Amino acid sequence: MTRAVVPMMGAFLAAVGAAGVALGLMAQPVGSRSGAESVIQAQQADQPTAQPAAQPASQPAAQAESLIRFGVAAPPARHKGAIRLATYNTENLFDAIDDPNLSGANEDIDDAKPEAQVKALAATIRKLDADVIALEEVESEAVVTWFRDTYLADAGYTFLASVEAGDERGIEQAVLSRFPIKSVKNWPHMPLEGTHPAKWGSGVNYHAGEPITFHRSPLRVVIEVPSDVTGGPAYDLTLFAIHAKSGGPGEYWRQAEADGLVKLLTAEMAANPKENIALLGDFNAILSDGSVQTLVGAGFHDALRDVYEPGARFTSHESGRRIDYILVNDNLAAEEVPGSGFVLGTPALPEGADWREPWRPDGYASDHYPVAIEIRPVEAASH
Q1: What would the pLDDT profile of 33-67 be if each residue is shown by its tens digit?
Q2: Class for the domain spanning 18-382
Q3: What is the DSSP letter of 297?
């Protein structure tokens, strides 16, 4: 593990044929898996398994907005004196450089994100205009640095953190920030309570009997919002960037991760009762699942509670589920700008499409959508 704090460095879809070439034939990584690993990936995937939808012959650019199935097409206006905090699962932000440490089912070269999607990802982040953004499902510090310096060089993300998280495929979490990063820490392979059961759903669990550890360690990053932004003393913000274990049968694993995270948080808040803490990322669970409720029960509030109403468009994943969150402790909840939360929609596969097919529409960036809130970086006691 190395610390990484780096200074600046529609009738809507196109045919797979000619349009596919124009889009760079957007092959997706799961489809590149083979053998037993393909079965495991299918078991663990978070995606729907519907049959492919018919694909019309063209996708007029004017109809791009019709591909936004969830969220808002543009962010709301920013509030004066507030900073924007966001999280975004980038869906396999891998480069095309071979990592010799990964081979076979985990071969990273198969997962290189198509250029059109990388550009769409950057365009989404620019539109989002977050001051601090946690990214999930990135390959490495080097890849995030390349992505920032190539596509977001003038977006103000002078500071970057990304640390190996213990995932066998090499994915980790990262943070891009316009404000200084004071410290970075994570806990790869930290032992959690219990051992893996014999079954993964209806199939064999290849981890059966092994001690449970974090599948991907949380990434703790402390941000300092400087006095020239706050108009007063500098303000510290502690983030835990989360990417919980995926897959329906993986709830036992997510529960163990949540329990372990609560232990870390309890100790941290005891040591610093005034700390402003946000847990943000891809929790791979809906709000009512035990793993999320464990964190809520530990004193963390759903910062987008006013956005997610029954029947609303504001899900965070193309499957129609809400699995990406920003949870805040009491200190930070007092500083959240009421009603500032939103989900930024991006072009998505049409309802009923098969995610395993390689085709993606113009403007497609990820199967997740960024979620954001605003906070006023002043201590609540001084309001």
Answers
A1: 333 333 333 333 443 333 333 344 445 444 556 68
A2: alpha beta
A3: H
